[in-house]
Amino acid sequence: MKKTKKQAGGLNCLHCEGPLRVRSSRSLAPTCLQQTVQCVNPECGASYGVSIEIAHGIAPSACLDPDVQLRMATPRARVANDIHTATAARGPGVPPRMAANDDCATAEAVTVGG
Question: Per-residue confidence at 100, pLDDT binned at 50, 70, 90?
Fold first, then answer.
């Protein structure tokens, strides 16, 4: 069988790299799902047990459920949006460009990597 690329957000067979199909699924907890998956390649037919877990939150929900207790990830440093770095990168006398994705009137666009 011709080897295929991994599907977006999915898993491929460990042996033939063919796509996997979910055969069964059950919830173990609000943050954990257990699945049985099978390779769709009829020449392979491997089956696997898969566990999917929501390990931590990245951004808080706007519809917070008080029953959900989930650790939040530590925010990463945002160096690319640092105004002092942006001013140094553009040089003196060059007017700032406004950031298109920022509601803050004092924010400016930053060119990264070039």
Answer: low
